[in-house]
Amino acid sequence: MTTSGETGVPPVIDARHLTVRYTDVLALDDVSLRLAPGSICGLIGVNGSGKSTLFTSLMGLLTPQAGSVELFGTSIASARKRGLVAYMPQAEGVDWTFPVSVSDVVGMGLYGRLGTARRLRPADRAAVDDALERVGLAALRKRQIGQLSGGQRKRVFIARSIAQDARLLLLDEPFAGVDRSSEHTMTALLKALRDEGRSVLVSTHDLAGVPDLCDEAVLLQQRVLAQGDPSQVLTHGNLALAFGPHPSSPNGAP
H-type helices in the chain, by residue range? Predict the structure, then answer.
């Protein structure tokens, strides 16, 4: 078991020395990441920097060649079985034509606690309704998921994690392809979930929004280049290492 600081509480994420290769391509190189309870961490890097590979490693969807992962001080399988973790993949990894309604998708977050019949009980249906109300999509609960806008689809996945009562949200590019209004709505929602004690690991290309949203940031380029307070991570020097010689720092740091 691992612990977080002096509190005796395990970190929500404790990933140690993860290395992942796809044939000759090195996707993750000795990556370590710890996330404390009740915090939002921004995962930042160019396309191909290993962000999605890190998410799938944390979910146990692939096995690293080296390293280990604990969630909440226990195995990935145990954390998932208990419904402690929820995952939002990139939009490209979702079949939006599948004939399921918005409420169906939200209800899928509860399947782990249901029997083989996968039938929602009254309390489960109430949890789905409450979650949809919270993300502002109650009026669209019967609509087919693919008929929603990009921002609405992302909020459905957040509603699913709320209904599930997940304590860790892994969000891969949730702000990609959404309008500014939806981004503000989602930012406020994620901060409210953080204030309730949940934790969020979120990958994003919106560097300007990181200081407002995130308690800490991780700059990834196959390996961790920097981790800590966003103001110390998102410097011109660090961003140049990750993005090239002309990055734009959101905080004006040299």
Answer: 51-58, 76-81, 102-107, 122-134, 150-164, 180-195, 210-213, 230-233, 236-243
Q: For residue 2, what pLDDT is reported?
A: 42
Q: Contact at 8 Å (CB) between 205 and 173?
A: yes
Strand partners, 18: 31
Q: Quick: pLDDT tens for 136-171.
A: 999 999 999 999 988 899 999 999 999 999 999 999
CB 17, CB 39: distance < 8 Å: no
Mean pLDDT of the 222-235 span: 95
- Kindly list the distances between the CA atom of residue 32 and the CA atoms of 26, 48, 77, 175, 227, in Å, as whole numbers in the listed order: 15, 18, 19, 25, 10
**Residue 150 C-beta-side C-alpha neighbours within 13 Å:** 14
Tokens of 231: 């103001």
DSSP 8-state code for residue 235: -
∠ CA 128-129-135 to the nearest 5 degrees? 90
Contacts 24+ apart (CB under 8 A), 1-10: 1/70, 1/73, 1/74, 2/70, 2/73, 3/73, 4/34, 4/36, 4/37, 5/36, 9/37, 10/70, 10/72, 10/73, 10/74
For residues 15 and 18, what is the distance between their CA atoms, to the nearest angstrom?
A: 7
The C-alpha atoms of residue 59 and residue 170 are separated, in whole angstroms, by 9
Tokens of 240: 């140049």
CA distances from 237 to 208, 231, 242, 244, 252 (A): 16, 12, 9, 10, 11
